[in-house]
Amino acid sequence: xLPTKEQLIQHLTDKMTNKDIAIIYETTFQKIIQLIKKNDxxxxxxxxxxxxxxxxxxxxxxxxxxxxxxx
Length: 71
Prior knowledge:
By secondary structure, this protein is α+β, with helices and mostly antiparallel strands. The protein contains four helices and two strands. It has a two-stranded antiparallel ribbon with strand order 1-2. Helix 2 (18-24) crosses helix 3 (29-38). The longest helix has 10 residues, at 29-38. It starts with a helix and ends with a strand. The mean pLDDT is 91.
């Protein structure tokens, strides 16, 4: 069974990769890409989140860099 349009939208909004979606539905990621195109979905827009994030880079158990950005 393949995902519905609503399920695809939810998975893409949840930032799932095409490969991960394919695994859930036991199909290929190429089939998921075809479904995305067939349903005229824009995965880039659906995966986009306008959230600010803060991240750290650690080296030898010490923080060497702290950054921020938009997801």
